[in-house]
Amino acid sequence: MAANQTLYVNNLNDKINVETLKKSLREVFAAFGGIIDIIAMKSLKRRGQAWIIFKEVAAATNSLKSLQGFPFYNKPMRKTLGL
Q: Record's Pfam families (predicted)?
């Protein structure tokens, strides 16, 4: 898999308000490095997922390894690089 600074996260609790979700994701993932943007939507097809765009590939890679299955709002997060 090619290195990528975007982390795709799914299995997120879709009952959480989108703005609250983005803020919480930023708090969790900022420990790994600078974040350019977090994309999360409330549309039916996009609920429960987010894209976290890091400034550096290493930050995305480290967060992927460290937080796989991390319980977030009572659901284990699933993550992959890119998309």
A: RRM_1 (PF00076)
